Amino acid sequence: MPAHQPLPTTTTIENLLDLDSLLSAEDRDLRTMVRGFGEQRLRPQIAEWFEAGQVPVRELAAEIGKLGLLGMHLQGYGCSGSTATAYGLVCQELEAVDSGLRSLVSVQGSLAMFAIHRWGSEEQRTRWLPGMAAGELIGCFGLTEPDFGSNPGGMCTTARRDGSDWILNGSKMWITNASVADVAIIWARSKEGVLGFAVPTSTPGFHATEMTRKLSLRASVTSEIHLDDVRVPEDARLPEAQGLKAPLSCLSEARFGIVFGAVGAARDCLQTTLDYVGTRAVFDRPLAGYQLTQAKIADMAVELGKAQLLALHLGRLKDEGRIRPEQVSVGKLNNVREAIKIARQCRTLLGANGITLEYPVLRHANNLESVLTYEGTSEVHQLVIGEALTGVGAFR
């Protein structure tokens, strides 16, 4: 009997579950635009940036700002006021190229800009947000400290009054874009509680040093901040921010972008692998023609589809103003956890080729190791969900 010939198929990763039917025409057009920018401008250089551990942040921020993607989910001050779902899709397409590029947009819009927009004064919004939305000004978000990551309430950075000014002292670590930033959102402990400040990075005593020798997020600027008697006026303080609720609200915004972003990284790994196994011959047959290969691909596609559905559902909840922090934790926990599993499995199907920068899968896997940790580790999100379900806090 003649060998069975596979039937032609038009099924792709993205239409396996017909997920496009859940998106508006505007969402699809935006996704197409950002994907095109990623393929034409970013992907040709991303492996080089990753290998060199250098990325032109200011140049890219200006280009991304022209596309209207920085702080796009905020209202006014040069921001377009898009839906949360649209913002999530942008994060998805950027992270399909590299997590570091999505981090640039997340830190700028969901951390630094959101902090000013939600907790700042009208004067601060007018001063900083239009330039940040255009990518002309870069922001960073200084919360994490060398000894306090998952427990930000233990921060040692201090703010004390000195007449009408504030004096800031302390250190922050793992701060994206700090060494290239124009303004740093600094969180500090004071007699009045945890306060936030919009600190121009040109202020005397503010020092930011880029952290090198990273094996993950190499196409992203990561820095350490040292504050040595940094004097700022009262109008640098975010007037509406007092207590940990303020910085935690910013983290929740950033986590939402990760829920979508991780899907992009996983999708890129799986698409790369599908293309590879269709042409790679093993024992005189395409690798795609083996049952073990198809089982792995099917399992990964199912998990990717579930992650995308979860992201879209959370996007709808956020657009309706009904999303809760523990729901964002569900999305971050699940989607990053599954994305890194997919990246690792894809690497096995690419064999030795999977460890090179000719293919993106190990680069994505390395990046996802950081994404798994930042904006709340998996363990922290498990405890957030556990507390929501049991009513008992187990952080201590």
Rounded average pLDDT: 95
Compressed to H and E, one letter per element, the order equals HHEEHHHEEEEEEEHEEHHHH
Task: State the end-to-end distance.
Answer: 68 Å
> For the largest beta sheet, what order do the strands appear in spatially?
4-5-9-8
Unreliable stretches covering 5 or more consecutive residues = none
How would you sum up the major sheet? 4 strands, antiparallel
Percentage of β-strand residues:
15-25%
Say how many strands there are.
Answer: 11
Number of helices: 10
Anisotropy-based shape: globular
Give the helix/strand class. alpha+beta
Report Rg. 22 Å
Report on this structure.
With 396 residues, this protein is an alpha+beta fold. It has ten helices and eleven strands. The strands form four sheets. A four-stranded antiparallel β-sheet has the order 4-5-9-8, covered by helices on one side.
